[in-house]
Write a structure and sequence with these properties.
Length: 121
């Protein structure tokens, strides 16, 4: 039986989560859909979401053209916002969990913007 594209992505993400759990640091995880991108900082034990940002938020939506939440500029805005929220929550260092997505395009734009805004990973 062949795996669907999403099943393959989830299979890749499981091993990453195991490695991050061993590190015992907060995890910056991302999810992307065709029209939006979401980022969350999750505590090291995985019990609590400490900060979150997405293109569906009102504050971020104003930064880009209406209906264009699925591009690299919008992803960069979310990366900057998640870094600001994480620093406000007292988090400086995180492990980047790309959830099985390739480090390319929107995922890369979000990660680089978060790094530029002062988040270390």
């Amino acid at each position: 039986m062949s795996l669907t594209k999403n099943d393959q992505r989830l299979r890749r993400s499981r091993q990453t989560r195991v490695r991050i759990a061993i590190q015992r640091v907060a995890r910056l995880t991302v999810f992307r859909s065709n029209s939006h991108i979401y980022a969350s900082v999750i505590s090291d034990d995985g019990a609590k979401v400490l900060a979150s940002a997405s293109t569906a938020e009102k504050g971020v939506r104003a930064d880009f053209i209406k209906g264009k939440g699925g591009n690299t500029a919008a992803a960069a805005a979310v990366g900057k916002r998640i870094a600001e929220k994480a620093k406000a929550a007292g988090i400086e260092t995180v492990a980047f969990d790309r959830a099985g997505y390739a480090y390319h395009g929107r995922i890369k734009a979000l990660a680089e913007a978060a790094r530029e805004a002062g988040l270390k990973f």
